[in-house]
Write a structure and sequence with these properties.
Number of strands: 4
Number of domains: 1
Helix content: 55-70%
Strand order of the largest sheet: 1-2
Shape: globular
Largest sheet: 2 strands, antiparallel
Distance between the termini: 90 Å
Number of helices: 11
Radius of gyration: 26 Å
Strand content: under 5%
């Protein structure tokens, strides 16, 4: 039985109350804490914090007389930090999926997620850069003077990227329509962090084999700066948000995916880094191809028409003076 509507001047109707609860700017709705998505975000934050702790412990192990701290070498601590960053990425993927699947998105969840991402995908990778990737251990003493700067630039770009994402996805900008896009604008912060973590795994694997990148170490600061700049760029990257249990694919794509998974399992130190680089340069390639197509689509005016258009304004006054 339909409940009677309230008379004017009384309490709001059920429909109005429902609309207010659906409004993301309703105070109750905006600050609502949904258990499962925010639990995943808390897991993300925990992994990021522990990755920072492992980086500090790795540094202590480097300076310890025994070469160990808490029973682990510096390389082992760095590996733990890398796997914790990967774990933070898994939690970050789950919290967004759970929120969208259950229709339980709130402004609180979005802000909490971004704050956790600054720690897990901003601060922790920046420490990995400073302590290991761009450090004098790579064979260049002057790395000591630029490592902190590159790490800070990365952290700054990650924070700006997250702030920009929160602004351009804010419901206030799309009150009358729902905007959905398959692409991220700028390199996603988790992808940037995964690239840094994968590079650490790659360098540690080379160290285990008594090999190093030698003169290629000079490329490392440039690569880290490229990753940082791409986060705040307008280069579009595929998001994968539309991939779910109902997604269909071609046989060739499925086989290729299985091959990639197999490579990751067998040669994880090389394959993960290769996948991260492929994702970065895929976005750049798509960006340049899109820009090239846009230039080709512009109408080209004939040279004679352009010259005629230029001479017309000057001919008028000359005739008037006659």
């Amino acid at each position: 039985m339909t409940p009677p509507r309230r008379q004017p001047g009384g309490n709001v109707t059920r429909e109005v109350d429902l609309a207010r609860r659906e409004d993301p700017y309703n105070v109750t709705q905006a600050s609502r804490i949904y258990f499962l998505p925010n639990l995943m975000t808390a897991g993300n934050l925990f992994c990021g914090f522990m990755a920072i702790v492992e980086c500090i412990q790795a540094r202590l192990a480097e300076t310890a007389p025994t070469g160990e701290y808490l029973g682990a070498t510096d390389a082992e601590h760095y590996k733990f930090a890398v796997w914790l960053i990967f774990g933070a990425g898994a939690f970050d993927l789950l919290d967004g999926r759970l929120a969208r699947m259950g229709g339980r998105e709130s402004l609180f969840g979005a802000e909490f997620d971004s704050l956790a991402d600054v720690i897990s995908f901003g601060m922790a990778p920046a420490l990995l850069m400073f302590y290991l990737i761009i450090s004098p251990t790579q064979g260049f003493e002057w790395f000591r003077h630029v490592g902190w700067f590159v790490g800070f630039v990365y952290l700054l770009c990650a924070a700006i990227r997250l702030a920009r994402f929160n602004v351009i996805t804010n419901p206030l900008l799309y009150r009358d329509k729902k905007v959905s896009t398959k692409d991220f604008i700028g390199l996603p912060v988790p992808a940037a962090a995964m690239t840094v973590a994968a590079l650490v795994l790659f360098l540690l694997k080379l160290a285990e084999m008594d090999r190093s990148v030698k003169s290629w170490s000079l490329v490392l600061p440039l690569l880290m700066l490229l990753v940082a700049i791409l986060m705040v760029s307008t280069v579009r990257y595929p998001s994968g948000k539309n991939v779910d249990l109902q997604t269909q694919t071609r046989l060739q794509t499925f086989v290729l995916f299985l091959i990639v998974v197999g490579l990751v399992v067998l040669y994880k130190e090389y394959a993960v880094f290769g996948i991260c680089l492929a994702y970065i340069f895929l976005g750049l390639l798509r960006h340049f191809r899109r820009a090239r197509s846009a230039l080709r689509a512009l109408p080209v005016r004939p040279v004679s028409a352009a010259i005629h258009a230029r001479t017309l304004p000057t001919e008028g006054p000359r005739r008037a003076r006659r």
